[in-house]
Design goal:
Blueprint lengths: L4 H26 L4 E7 L4 H12 L20 E6 L10 H10 L21 H7 L3 E6 L6 H4 L11 H9 L5 E5 L16 H7 L2 E4 L2 H5 L6 E6 L21 H12 L6 E7 L1 H7 L3 H24 L3 E7 L2 E2 L2 E2 L20 H14 L3 H11 L7 H16 L3 H8 L4 H14 L2 E2 L4 E2 L3 E7 L7 E4 H12 L6
Parallel strand pairs: 1-7, 1-8, 2-14, 3-4, 3-7, 4-6, 5-6
Antiparallel strand pairs: 2-13, 8-13, 9-12, 10-11
Helix pairs in contact: 2-11, 3-17, 9-11, 10-11, 12-13, 12-16, 13-14, 14-16
Length: 476
Amino acid sequence: MRRNQPFWKLGLVLALIFACLSLQVFAAAEAPPKYIFMFIGDGMGIAQRQVAELQLNNTPGKTAIDQKKRLVMNTLRVNCVNTTYDSTSIVPDSASTATSLSSGYKTLSGVIGLREDKTTVTPYISEALKNKGYAVGIVSSVKIVHATPAAYYCHIDSRNKYDEIAEQLINSKFDLFVGGGGVKHFSPASRKDKRDLYQEAAAKGFTVATTSKEFLAAKPGQRVLANLPGDMNDEALPYALDRGPDDLPLPQIVKKSIDLLSANKKGFFLMVEEGKVDWACHANDTGSTIANMLDLDQAVAAALEFKKKHPQTLIIVTGDHECGGLGLSMGTEYRVNPELFYNQKLSFEMADVKVAAILKNERDPQSGILKLAADFGLTHPTESEKAQIAKALADEQAGLSKQQLNALYGGYRPVSMTFCRLMNTRANLFWTSYVHTGIPVLTTVEGVGAARFSGYKDNTDICKALNQVAQAGLKW
């Protein structure tokens, strides 16, 4: 027995060493991600992802028959489908759905960061991560006080209280805010209380940028509030189809945001919303939907490229809800032709501006409208298409009431909506709605802890899975 004692001791030592190594491996496997990207395509359902991917496989004049080329967001390794209903309805709005994604709680449509009583605060995953030492950035292609971005830093009973949301923004502890337009909510010239929130933000340590050049000049480690030049309504960045040389695409904004936030040694959480996908879907503008979807996808590609050098990264891509009820074919034909949208050179929003200019400046608006139709992709219109455009032009000149516009054109301007309808008919695409739908959305995930997101989930489960993976400490 004594002769076997050394072997018994050796076995015990080896067992202890193995146990310690196993614990270290387990601990390493369970370590939270250092870098977290949360991409939200507002209004982005499965069909929106599908039609954008089809466009990657098309070439002008040639219809794709497969989807061998993939959207980057569709290559992420873990998938789940999640519901989007809120406490109000199966068909939700962006305030409530973003609150579910950011806090893990359902709430009423129009409410941001509060429970159904409109009083009880729902703590955010972004706030919990900031308390853990992460740098936090909030980016959107629409104004930064809009519902989805606001649902990561603001708690308020109405999404429409933009001036008050702006006040909560400058009083937050976060490190980076980037949006398009919305200057009026920060400027004393347009605020009822005449406060200069830019000046107040600067006093609180923010570097304020109101041009693309100023934003790109910001230094890593600086706190930044960037309201980039907006579209003609100063409500968002221009659509991808309408961008000028000084307008920054979302991928470039994301790359710069990564650069700014990476100065924090404890890591960062970056929420990125592509908000104009939703706006294009409301208008049933398929060409603008596709162009902005591809913009979002390249932003996801920037995050995936970052992950190659920083494996402690988690990337989540989801939609807050579907918008428009997009169908990829209609009637009795087995076809879809998104390659036709390569011919579309401007959004419905820009078309509205140009229609107004034609009506104001041209004696014969019919010819000018037909030229504009060609820019929208409606080359060589048929007699039937010309008749529909003429009818829309007459309705435009008649000055229809709001009720008539809603009934005939979904509330949009007659000519631009007719352009959209004719392009969709040519492509054999069909939209069922001008508003949100209750269709579930697809979530794709890659990186540290991604497996926890798989399955059929509710949108609140996305936040709960992230909380678990990041060890953020939220309780429900």
